[in-house]
């Protein structure tokens, strides 16, 4: 996040910081807004307020890191969901191909039976004509 | 993360902190280890080192928040993947049901044609017998 290119002014904990980086201003404002929300959240706890600045800084960092790990865990759950869906989809495709092959064979058999049927009917007409004659 | 139940000692930035919470010791050690890694990563940059403690604290928090937003974005991408797969799966199920119905109808038609053929063959045998008689 610390590089060149863009310079964005953000307000964090009531102080202005100039951030430089490749990230868009929108993104940096979003991250700063989240950070302000976390600072406020922490400040609501007496256990946080009574600590010195250094400990507060670590507690804030731990709190954000906790969000990060929870987001990663959520990502992991989604990855497991994707794996399950991929397996299900593989089975469905397999089942579909198998049904399509069976259908193709059934249609061939049907055509053959229709043809046979036609020939048998012609044979009957012929035999009936012979009987009449 | 700050509640009662467990008390875990962690080492962050060379200092011991006692964290209390419902999270497991394993989890808190993992988060602390990540935090130490982030502190080390930031400290490698001169731009970070030359700042005062307060600014360093904000920069560290921003850096972790950046990881959090990237993990969330990754989660969002996975959610989009899941939506696409769900749609694909819905279409596949629909196609499979349609193929199965067609197959069922083809099998019924096949049985009917076989039955008809049998009857026609019997009629032929009868007619041939009549012709011979």
TrEMBL record, chains A, B:
Subunit structure as annotated in this protein's UniProt entry: Homodimer. Interacts with FtsZ.
Recorded coiled-coil stretches: 89-130
BP terms from Gene Ontology: cell division
Predominant location: cytoplasm
Protein name: Cell division protein ZapA
Role description: Activator of cell division through the inhibition of FtsZ GTPase activity, therefore promoting FtsZ assembly into bundles of protofilaments necessary for the formation of the division Z ring. It is recruited early at mid-cell but it is not essential for cell division.
Keywords: Cell cycle, Cell division, Coiled coil, Cytoplasm, Septation
Organism the protein comes from: Ohessyouella blattaphilus
Cell location: Cytoplasm
InterPro entries: Bac_CellDiv_Activator, Cell_div_ZapA-like, Cell_div_ZapA-like_sf
Cited SUPFAM superfamilies: Cell division protein ZapA-like
Regions that span the bilayer: none
């Amino acid at each position: 996040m610390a590089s060149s290119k863009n310079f964005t002014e953000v307000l964090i904990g009531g102080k202005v910081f100039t951030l430089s980086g490749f990230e868009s201003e929108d993104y940096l404002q979003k991250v700063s807004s989240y950070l302000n929300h976390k600072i406020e959240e922490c400040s609501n706890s007496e256990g946080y307020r009574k600590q010195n600045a250094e400990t507060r800084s670590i507690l804030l960092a731990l709190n954000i890191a906790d969000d990060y790990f929870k987001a990663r865990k959520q990502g992991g759950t989604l990855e497991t969901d994707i794996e399950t869906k991929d397996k299900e989809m593989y089975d469905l495709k397999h089942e579909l191909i198998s049904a399509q092959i069976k259908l193709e064979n059934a249609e061939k058999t049907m055509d053959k039976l229709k043809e046979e049927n036609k020939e048998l009917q012609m044979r009957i007409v012929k035999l009936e004509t012979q009987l009449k004659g």
